[in-house]
Amino acid sequence: MTVLLREDDVNKLLDIRDSIQLMEELFSYQHLDTPSVQPRRRVATGQGTLNVMFASVPARNVSGLKSYVVTPHGVRFTVLIYDNSSAELLAMIEANRLGQLRTGAATGVATKYMAREDASTLGLIGAGYQAETQLEAIAEVRDLRRVLVFSRSYERAKDFSQRMSNRTGLDIQPINDLTEVAGCDIVVTATSSQQPVLFGSNLSDGAHINLVGSNWISKAEADLEVLLRSTSVVVDSLESAKIEGGDLALAIDRGLLWWERVFELSDVVTRRFAPRTSDSDITLFKSHGIASEDVIMAHECYLRAIRKGIGEDIELS
Fold first, then answer.
1. What is the pLDDT of residues 66-121, one digit of tens each?
2. Taking a C-beta distance cutoff of 8 angstroms, is the pair 316, 79 a contact?
3. Phi and psi dihedrals of 87, rounded to 5?
4. Residue 190 near residue 126, CB atoms below 8 Å
5. Residues of 198-224 as b/e, b for ≥16 C-beta within 10 angstroms?
6. How far apart are CA 247 and CA 200, in angstroms?
7. 53: left (phi over 0), alpha (psi -120 to 50) or beta
């Protein structure tokens, strides 16, 4: 029997704290029981782009895929997960919320292991859908004293700040000055910009950076100096980074960064690589979003749905 889980079901089954634990689980065993992960594949539809990404997670005996079409009218995500032994389709999941949670959670794990222990100020560049879980995840792993939010629309930053302050109880302030945001202990870029919005000259010593918004080789949210000042550069997947890492590509092409000096988040979580050796180091995590993250999240949703009797049963021949 296949279970259909809708967006409301996902909301009932997982929160940001659960999601961080799942990401930490995934990256803690990724180097031992290596999930087989295929980078995102894209096909032009004439009106948009079809995206498909898939992975197997042997530690949980499941495989799955996420597919979505991006058009000027929006985007809808769907995840399918299969049992590796029986080949049974376990679940079909509406996955807009699931993707929002897993993207924030990956940042949460990176920040937990890479930011200074005393980091207490967060600068958010971007005030959209993804910025919500970025903020919530970082608040789970660091004691935030102050959050600054920048958006191209000050009114949007103001609305986001009020809404998220009410939700989290944090001191969140909208601002117009990008340099002030970039000077925080932790900086997140969650934008759709094709050009840099974060500049290395504005970073404070000891900062931790999470670049989240771009997964296209032709786009970059950070300038070259951000990469030059970063003591360590970490990604969720090297294979994906080489295809989609526009933030890294120019530095690589100019010989300012080498792939041999870029590490995966699993190396950090398993302590095989120490991203920070002093409080003055600047650390950088570039998130692309990989299918194994979606699969482990979807599988946990499925397991909890079965236990709680949530979802709709679908009979397939």
1. 999 999 888 899 999 999 999 999 999 999 999 999 999 999 999 999 999 999 99
2. no
3. 70, 10
4. yes
5. bebebbeebbbbbbbbbbebebbbbbb
6. 13
7. beta
